[in-house]
Amino acid sequence: MKIYTKKGDDGKTMLLGGTRLPKHHIRIAAYGEIDELNSFIGLVADLLPSHQQILREIQNNLFVVGSHLATEPDQAEKIQLPALPENAAEILEKEIDRMTAMLPELKHFILPGGHATVSHIHIARTVCRRAERTATALAEISTVNPIFIQYLNRLSDYLFTLSRAAAQELGAEENKWLPKK
């Protein structure tokens, strides 16, 4: 099978189900940002083996979200796309709580950095926030399952907490934001 089809050379791409849209359409941006996020999550999983199992689960969940965003809502049932596990956000909440219990109390804003792995987690977090913003914009003009937006919101919280846990695991100091007065 060839990787190139030449069908996108006119500036359009095909959704699952056959609908063609311009490559700049917000639906394309939404699932493209999920793909970008998934790539960063993969990088973080490679850099942080101690959290690899949950990060791979997150990657699978992001594929589910992306596949739904890459499909016109009226086509999703016909295609029989996989569902996001009902407890996906709850699993992230439990991980956040587990990691938070081992961290010092948060008393300052944290600047990204301190270690390359921590910085990559922060990049994943900001890409997640962007993907969430785009998904909510898409939801204003089309049907988007609210559980996807909830999952992205919780995922960014998870990634922030993971950045703190990783800093602790790696012996990196958290960069506290201390504004000058």
Commentary on this structure:
By secondary structure, the protein is mostly helical. The chain has a single domain (24-176), classed as Hypothetical Protein Ta1238, Chain: A. The chain contains six helices and four strands. It has helices at residues 26-47, 52-69, 73-79, 88-100, 116-139, 146-170; strands spanning 12-14, 20-22, 110-111, 175-176. The strands form two sheets. Strands 1-2 form a two-stranded antiparallel sheet. The chain has a two-stranded antiparallel sheet with strand order 3-4. Helix 5 (116-139) runs antiparallel to helix 6 (146-170).
The span between the termini is 62 Å
Q: Element order, helices and strands?
A: EEHHHHEHHE
Lateral arrangement of strands in the main beta sheet: 1-2
Rg, rounded, reads 18 Å
Mean pLDDT: 94
The CATH architecture is Up-down Bundle
Largest beta-sheet details: 2 strands, antiparallel
Q: Tell me the overall shape.
A: elongated
Condensed summary:
With 181 residues, the chain is mainly alpha-helical. The protein is 60% helix and 6% strand.
Fold topology:
Layout: E1 12-14, E2 20-22, H1 26-47, H2 52-69, H3 73-79, H4 88-100, E3 110-111, H5 116-139, H6 146-170, E4 175-176
Antiparallel strand pairs: 1-2, 3-4
Helix pairs in contact: 1-2, 1-5, 4-6, 5-6
Which keywords apply here?
single chain, 181 residues, mainly alpha, Hypothetical Protein Ta1238, Chain: A, two-stranded antiparallel ribbon, two-stranded antiparallel sheet, 6% strand, elongated
